[in-house]
Amino acid sequence: MLTRLRLHSSFRIAPKSLVPRPRLTSRYSTTTPPKMDQSNHPTRPKKLIFAPGDIAPEPSTPQHEHPSPSEVSTPTSATEAQILSHPAQAHQFGTNPPLTISQLSPNPLHQFNTWFHDPRLLPSSAPETCVLATAELPSGRVSARTLYLKELDERGWVVYSNWGSRAGKGAQVFGAQVDQGQEPGGMPEPHEDGGLETEAAGGNKWGALTFTWAEVERCVRVEGLLEPLSREESLVYWQTRERGSKIGGWASWQSSVLWEARGEEIPTLRKDIELAQKGDGSDGVEAVDDADGRGVLEARVREVEERFRGVEEIPLPPFWGGMRLVPESVEFWQGRRSRLHDRFRFVKEGEGWKVQRLSP
Ligand SMILES: Cc1cc2nc3c(=O)[nH]c(=O)nc-3n(C[C@H](O)[C@H](O)[C@H](O)COP(=O)(O)O)c2cc1C
C-alpha cells in the first residue's frame, strides 16, 4: 500500500530514485522510542527465563522472592552453551507412529472422538483441558483461557462458563450489551433461526479451541463460530455439578475486579499481614482475606449460601451456561522428527468436509 507523505516546504524535491524511502515499518515502530544503552544501541530486555525448563531456579531462592539483577541478566555465552547442550533443547518429536490419511475418519468430530479416547491419554493428565481464544471487536484484541471440554456432539465442542461478565469472554462473544449493570447480564438464547438478540451489539462469534496432548505428541485445533446452548441443555449439565460449585457459580461474577493495588504496595501489604499474624497469633487467613480481596468473594459466597438455604435445587444462573464451538476447520497434528510434523486440516465445504495436508 502506498502512503502519501506531506513534505515540509523547505524540503528540496530530489529526483525520485535519490529520495531515501521512508521506513514505513520498523522493528521499533511503536509510539515509545526504544531505550538506548551507552553505545547508543537499543537495550535488550533482560531475560528471566530462557528456554523454559532449561534453567532451574536456585533451590535456595523462595518462589515469591525476586532474583537479584545479576541473576536476571542476559545469558552469557557460557550459560548459552550450557543451555544448548541441555537434553531438553534437543527434544525431538516422533517417538509415536506417524499420522497418515488412512487413519483419518471422513468426519473430524468422529476423528476427535477417536483421538480423545486414545488409551495412552491418562485421565490424570486431564485430556479435556483446552484453550479457548476469542477476540473483541472492533479492537481485534485477542484473549485466551483454559477451559474443560464437557461435551462433544455431532454439532461441535461444548464448554461451560459464565458468559455474562463485561470483563471476560462473554462481552467479546456477545457484545457489550451482555452486561448492563453491576451484576453479570443474562446469557442470550439462540432463536429458531439460529440468530441471537445480541447480533447488533458488536459481539464476535468467531472462536478457536486448542487441545495439546503432549504424551502422545498430538494437538488438535478447532476454529469456528460460537453458539450458546439452550437453557434446557445447559440445565442438564448444571444439575450434575455439586452444590459448592453451584454456589460458586452464582457468587463469582467471573473476571470482575474484586480488589486492586499498585505493585509497589505488595511489600507493605506483606508486612501488614505478617504483623497481623504475629499480633493475634492466628494463622492469618482472615488477615490475608482482608488484605487482598479474597474476603469480598467469601462474603458473596456466604450471601449466596444464605439466599439458597433450604433450596434443594439451586437454579441455573442466567449468566452461566454452555457454549458450542461449531467448527469451520479442524486440524489434527502429530509430531514427527526434525519438526517435519504431520498436519491434516478438515475445512467445511457445504455439508461435507475437504481434507488438506499442511506443511509443518
Ligand atoms: C485447567 C483449568 C480448567 C478450567 N476450566 C474452566 C471451565 O471449564 N469453565 C470456566 O468458566 N473456567 C475454567 N477455568 C478458569 C478459566 O481459565 C478462566 O479463568 C475463566 O473462564 C475466566 O475467563 P475470562 O476472563 O476470559 O472470561 C479453568 C482453568 C484451568 C486452569
Describe the fold and architecture:
22% of the residues lie in helices and 20% in strands. It is globular. Strand 7 and strand 8 form a beta hairpin. The longest helix is centred in the C-terminal third of the chain and has 15 residues, at 266-280. The protein has helices at 77-85, 108-116, 169-174, 231-238, 243-251, 266-280, 285-292, 294-307; strands at 129-135, 142-152, 157-162, 206-213, 218-228, 320-334, 342-349, 352-357. It contains 8 helices and 8 strands. The chain starts with 76 loop residues before the first helix and ends with a strand. It has a domain at 101-245 and 319-357: Electron Transport, Fmn-binding Protein, Chain A (Pnp Oxidase, Chain A). It is α+β, with helices and mostly antiparallel strands and 360 residues long. Flavin mononucleotide is lined by residues 129, 143, 145-148, 159-162, 168-169, 254-255.
